[in-house]
Amino acid sequence: MAFTENLSSVDGGLKSELGKKGIVVATLNELYNWGRRSSIWPMQFGLACCAIEMIATACARYDIARFGAELFRPSPRQSDLMIVAGTVTKKMAPQVVRLYNQMAEPKYVITMGACSIAGGPFIDGYNVLRGIDRYIPIDVHLPGCPPRPEALLYGLMELQRKIDGQTIEKTEWYQKGLKREYPVPECGPHGLIPKFNPEVWAPREVDHRKERYGEPVLIGKKDKAPNLDAPVAARPAATSASSASQPSAS
């Protein structure tokens, strides 16, 4: 994850000596970022099995409250962080984008698990989206199937490092004309329309996946749906076992 470290103009040795005397020296950016990174409110929703690991992170054993992120909000209007935990189907993708648009700035996204990053083991499924990053920007990717709670805590700490590197003068949500509402895809006859958001994602020029893993499995693929209204052929009458076992009179 790319981020810039927010360095203070005050000498580190001077800050250390003043700290020993009970004097705290900090910049406005440090106070601003400290308050935001210590009170990240995630959105309370899960998509698949990775959500179980997310729930375990909030329990007493891992205690996500140490990072100020224990307050899962049921409304996107009150959430700072969206954790896309689990498989994103093409039917669910429009709802995820709609929830992201309803979140207030500043807002961040963590993709949890291989399914939300690139489709995971269901990458060849007709109903699975190959990564939610095709429609919304992602801040932290957490690979795994599923990632353990420690991985989610590590991703949260990486997000805190990114927040520490932001400045009030250059943050996106304080700029004029900012509009981070992305188009919500719709379900069409051949998948989602549009297939991706060109503002946040672009397809690869060369796809090496076929070279490494071969063509997707197409065994049992049907060209058309079965005709359920076709008449069912009558079954031949079954001969009783007793009559078949008796010898003929001749």
Describe the structure.
With 250 residues, the chain is of the alpha/beta class. Helices cover 27% and strands 8% of the residues. The chain is built from 8 helices and 5 strands, in the order H-H-H-E-H-E-H-E-H-E-E-H-H. The protein has helices at 12-20, 28-37, 50-57, 93-102, 114-118, 149-164, 209-213, 241-245; strands spanning 81-85, 108-112, 140-142, 186-188, 191-193. The strands form 2 sheets. Strands 1-2-3 form a 3-stranded parallel β-sheet. A hairpin with a 2-residue loop joins strand 4 (186-188) and strand 5 (191-193). Helix 3 (50-57) crosses helix 6. The longest helix has 16 residues, at 149-164. It is elongated and about 100 Å long. The model has no long low-confidence stretch (mean pLDDT 83).
How are the SSEs ordered, and which strands pair?
Blueprint: H1 12-20, H2 28-37, H3 50-57, E1 81-85, H4 93-102, E2 108-112, H5 114-118, E3 140-142, H6 149-164, E4 186-188, E5 191-193, H7 209-213, H8 241-245
Parallel strand pairs: 1-2, 2-3
Antiparallel strand pairs: 4-5
Write out the strand line-up for the largest beta sheet, numbering strands in chain order. 1-2-3
The backbone outline, from C-alpha atoms, is elongated
**Regions with little confidence, pLDDT below 50 for 5+ residues:** none
SS-based structural class?
alpha/beta
**CA(first)-CA(last) distance:** 90 Å
Q: Largest beta sheet, briefly?
A: 3 strands, parallel
Number of helices: 8
